[in-house]
Amino acid sequence: MKFPSQLVEDAVDAFASLPGIGKKSALRLVLHLLQKDVAYTEQIGNSIIKLRKEIKFCEECHNISDERLCNVCADPHRESNTICVVENFKDVLAIESTNHFRGKYHVLEGVISPIDGIGPEQLNIESLVERVQRDQIEEVVMALNPTMDGDTTIYYISKKLKDTPTKITTIARGVAFGGELEYVDEVTLARSLASRLPFDQYFGK
Amino acid sequence: MKFPSQLVEDAVDAFASLPGIGKKSALRLVLHLLQKDVAYTEQIGNSIIKLRKEIKFCEECHNISDERLCNVCADPHRESNTICVVENFKDVLAIESTNHFRGKYHVLEGVISPIDGIGPEQLNIESLVERVQRDQIEEVVMALNPTMDGDTTIYYISKKLKDTPTKITTIARGVAFGGELEYVDEVTLARSLASRLPFDQYFGK
Predict the structure, then answer these.
(1) Do A36 and B27 touch (CB under 8 A)?
(2) Of A105, A149, A154, B108, which is the most buried if we count CB atoms within 10 A?
(3) Has this prediction a pTM greater than 0.80?
């Protein structure tokens, strides 16, 4: 499609470069913006620019933050002897929204992935090990996605921490609440069987 | 969901204010941007700001343009005695992509809609009437969407032009190519029957 304006073409290309937005959706967004006033589009544009330019990462846990420390690390009411290891800040949001974790986090910013060429040195693993040793962490909860790469990363970190007295746990793999057994893949079902729970623990006691 | 950063919250709100993007998709886009470098996000932000700020509208046909005249109006090879009236610049793109129209355009920037409070004075109808009279246009092709509002607008414009010798036509309403009769609504089917064509015209002669 040939656009009558270079400005439109640039804006369509910009939107279409985002994941999940194709050329047609991008054009729809551009038409929407053209019908709005300048102040609104400036606000959108500036919030995108400021987002990446001014974002900070927490010096402790590498979670995104507006300050030197993120609001979890800065909160004195959080338990400081438990660290939950996650892949990215979206997982922090997901776990926070359960209101069932009172410890702190450590954001790896990825997982070990030989196929994508991501090795342990590109992740925040060194700082996790330092933190565990320095703060005498009692438990490290691995909350990584249940993939091959996630499991590789869990294995790597557990080896790195094997000389510390820290307990390493992983979140349970199993059949999701509301899921149906016949549609669950065999690996999940096998793991779910292997890590079966006594009846009284099932309801969280 | 509570975000750990005001910058993230602003960016999520900005994306979520666009049509067809919810809070979850907005968050996914923000995470994507956080993983990109600053130059890329600045380019996206600036193209959105520039789009609305620097866009011009063609003085002749109100199509979007980078110059005083759009590339259709500025093209001396286009037939200047036929004007195709469309609702917005997306319709210009759609008709241009057929390569079957060699005349010029007139973009109304909307249709008459009593429900949305849009009257004829908010649309580019006055400038259309002036153009038709000044340039002694032979044919005005109405290519508006086949809705109640579109038909109202066609009727209004045809009344405004009734004292000129200009021929007013509308694009054919009918069963779409590849469509199935049993799924076509009755209004379309009735109009399609009423405007039936002789066999030799059907294949475009």
Answers:
(1) no
(2) A105
(3) no
